Amino acid sequence: MIRFVLNVLWLIFGGGIVLAIGYGIAALVCFVLVVTIPFGVAALRLALYSLWPFGHTLVPKPGAGLASGLANVLWVVLAGWWLALSHLVAGVALCLTIIGIPFGVANFKLVPAAFWPLGREVVATP
Predict the structure, then answer these.
(1) The domain containing residue 74 runs over which residues?
(2) Coil, helix or strand for 14?
(3) Which of 29, 34, 37, 67 has the fewest Cβ atoms within 10 angstroms?
(4) What total number of domains does the chain contain?
């Protein structure tokens, strides 16, 4: 029940909707540019994860190989480090207030996902 309340508060006050819309627009752009469809899938995964971060975690996907590693290097150069930096800055800013600490922690959880998204999957935590 606490995770549900935190997720609803995250959507309203923590910026979850704004993040999801941003990642969704990036996914649409990647789908239009046919070559970047794998990045679009990763952006959609990030959009869903940013909508409901409490109660979920990111784990390595079994079977992800060299291609996803090389694509991640390209992702980091083009977009990943900007996204990770923005989540890091937002997390630090939110942690400055006592009420914002859970939302700051959620932003810190999104940093590795934004930095290195391919070859990972979002799973529910027990």
Answers:
(1) 2-124
(2) coil
(3) 34
(4) 1
